[in-house]
């Protein structure tokens, strides 16, 4: 049994596409690498093994989630390990290239690997002089490297060139060295699809097209051509992580609200987010509510579409997981969580109701079609004649959406979110396609069109 099988516990956040890691140090203590604010899975893993987190290491100032390192410092007394170049404003061990941290038998060596961010570090885990593995954060990842455009267009190419040098440095490690990235499939910080989240240096030399690039210019061109859009909340979260997110004194609670209280909150500028399944929202919802069904990707779309400084009221279905809903909001910095109510409570309290039609693919007919998927999805195959506007850009481009559109994505969740935004902007006679382009092709017998 190898080290990773016995003492490394990956903790995957499927919604954000990230992995944190818990390392059993063999003496009742543990190292946590890139822990997020939602520490439930980490706590469960640590308790199962009887571990106390003694070290919490952040590879970089994360843009997609709030760090849980401060919470671990407050709760467990963990030493926070992070880059000196990050200029964090809270107590931490400030590390630079080549610094080593004694973990009590194992050693954590700091490697400066800028590119994804300026201050990015990788952490090489050593047993004596033997390289066990390297925590690469958003530097070398499975099949690619993380994006370099988070600090603005004027820095993108410069950071891509830094990323090239960082990957080359990591590639000099022995082929057997395990690679434990933070970003992976499903992360808007990275590009490649796929199921594998860990790898080895040798495997990446064979399979990673960026490592095979013959020169720096080719690397930069290939990396930048793979980048799509990313959630708007990424632009603010790194600074929150630099200052340090608030430490939570207790587990969060989401109180039940009356219809009258919700009307008052709406009058004060609250946003209403309906987290029920798509059919429930279609059948009846609070006018002006935004549909974001509660699923793994909930946090991404909440952060992309709604402001973080307005109170949030959630419309929930009976039996939905309220702690999950709360933690998905908190892990990306949404803390003004006013409470929740059911649609039945809203109606019983005299509230009005709006609806949106659900359509099967055989009923679209000649209606205009709006495709709200990511550009890369659209290029892989789209309904001919469909207007393409990514969901993340739709609120600002609602006037470009065709009147009376049938809105679609891949399955229906993003499409209903888009339809709710359009309805809120004044569009009428909207419908949402049940399913996606493949269902249209099957229903009509016509091929999808590839390309832009």
From TrEMBL:
Gene3D superfamilies: Rhodanese-like domain (3.40.250.10), Ribonuclease Z/Hydroxyacylglutathione hydrolase-like (3.60.15.10). The keyword Transmembrane does not apply. Coiled coil: none annotated. One of its GO terms (molecular function) is sulfur dioxygenase activity. It comes from the Bacteria. CDD domains: POD-like_MBL-fold (cd07724), RHOD (cd00158). Residues 266-355, 363-449 form the Rhodanese domain. InterPro entries: Metallo-B-lactamas, Mito_Persulfide_Diox, POD-like_MBL-fold, Rhodanese-like_dom, Rhodanese-like_dom_sf, RibonucZ/Hydroxyglut_hydro, Thiosulphate_STrfase_CS. GO terms for biological process: glutathione metabolic process; hydrogen sulfide metabolic process. Keywords: Metal-binding. This is Beta-lactamase domain protein.
């Amino acid at each position: 049994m190898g080290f990773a099988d016995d003492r490394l516990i990956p903790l995957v956040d499927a919604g954000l596409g990230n992995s944190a890691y818990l390392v059993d140090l063999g003496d009742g203590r543990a190292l946590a690498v890139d822990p997020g604010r939602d520490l439930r899975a980490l706590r469960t893993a640590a308790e199962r093994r009887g571990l106390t987190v003694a070290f919490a290491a952040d590879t970089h100032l994360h843009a997609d989630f709030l760090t849980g390192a401060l919470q671990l410092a407050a709760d467990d007394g963990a030493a926070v390990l992070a880059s000196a170049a990050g200029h964090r404003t809270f107590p931490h061990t400030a590390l630079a290239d080549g610094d080593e941290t004694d973990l009590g038998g194992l050693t954590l060596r700091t490697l400066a690997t800028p590119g994804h961010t300026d201050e990015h570090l990788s952490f090489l885990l050593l047993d004596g002089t033997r390289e066990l593995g390297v925590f690469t954060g958003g530097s070398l990842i499975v099949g690619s490297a993380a994006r370099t455009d988070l600090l603005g267009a004027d820095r993108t190419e410069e950071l891509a060139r830094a990323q090239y040098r960082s990957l080359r440095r990591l590639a000099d490690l022995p082929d057997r060295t395990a690679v434990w990235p933070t970003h992976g499939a499903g992360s808007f910080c990275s590009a490649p699809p796929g199921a594998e989240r860990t790898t080895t240096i040798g495997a990446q030399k064979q399979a990673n097209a960026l490592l095979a690039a013959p020169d720096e210019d080719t690397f930069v061109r290939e990396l930048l051509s793979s980048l799509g859009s990313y959630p708007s909340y990424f632009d603010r979260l790194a600074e929150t992580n630099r200052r340090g997110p608030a430490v939570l004194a207790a587990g969060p609670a989401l109180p039940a609200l009356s219809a009258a209280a919700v009307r008052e909150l709406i009058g004060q500028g609250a946003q209403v987010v309906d987290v029920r399944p798509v059919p429930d929202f279609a059948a009846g919802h609070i006018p002006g509510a935004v549909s974001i069904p509660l699923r793994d990707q909930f946090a991404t779309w909440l952060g992309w579409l709604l402001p973080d400084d307005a109170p949030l009221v959630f419309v929930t279905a009976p039996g939905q997981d309220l702690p999950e809903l709360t933690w998905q909001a908190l892990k990306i910095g949404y803390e003004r969580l006013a409470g929740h109510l059911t649609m039945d409570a809203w109606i019983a309290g005299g509230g009005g109701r709006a609806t949106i039609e659900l359509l099967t693919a055989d009923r679209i007919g000649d209606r205009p079609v709006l495709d709200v998927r990511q550009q890369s999805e659209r290029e892989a195959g789209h309904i001919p004649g469909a207007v393409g506007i990514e969901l993340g850009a739709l609120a600002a481009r609602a006037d470009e959406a065709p009147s009376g559109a049938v809105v679609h994505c891949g399955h229906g969740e993003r499409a209903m979110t888009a339809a709710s935004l359009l309805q809120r902007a004044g569009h009428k006679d909207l419908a949402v396609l049940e399913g996606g382009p493949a269902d249209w092709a099957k229903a009509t017998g016509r091929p999808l069109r590839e390309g832009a």
